[in-house]
Amino acid sequence: MKKRIVKDYDQLPEDVLADLKMKYPNGFSEHLIRFTNAQGKKVSALPFETEEVYYLVRMTEEEAIQIIEEDDDYDEFGNLSDDFTGADGLQGSDDEEEEDDRTVLPQDEEDDDDDDY
Known about the structure:
By secondary structure, this protein is α+β, with helices and mostly antiparallel strands. It has one domain (about 5-90). Helix content is about 15%, strand content about 20%. The chain has helices at about 15-25, 60-70; strands at about 5-10, 35, 40-50, 55-60, 105. The chain has a 5-stranded mixed β-sheet with strand order 2-3-4-1-5, with no helix packed on it. The protein is globular. The chain starts with a strand and ends in a 13-residue tail after the last strand. Residues about 90-100 and about 105-115 have low confidence and may be disordered.
């Protein structure tokens, strides 16, 4: 089973950010899911899966819109630019992630909102 990680957008490695943009070329806000975290608080996140990790990238709908508006890789309509090269075009990207800024979800933890994603 894949490792499950909840992480803030600005804490993602560059290669994961590039892959995330390729998966969601028209922005993030329409793809957010909502769930109750371990502290019982309702939160929203963007699901994203790599070969080894299932990410929930924490962000509100407002943050998702702001991220796209401020990102030069997206045009004024919120669409990924045609000249975006993705992870292959990144120089010096590192596949290793720092362990200290991640929250790992228990793999066997059940959630009331599992049907939503």
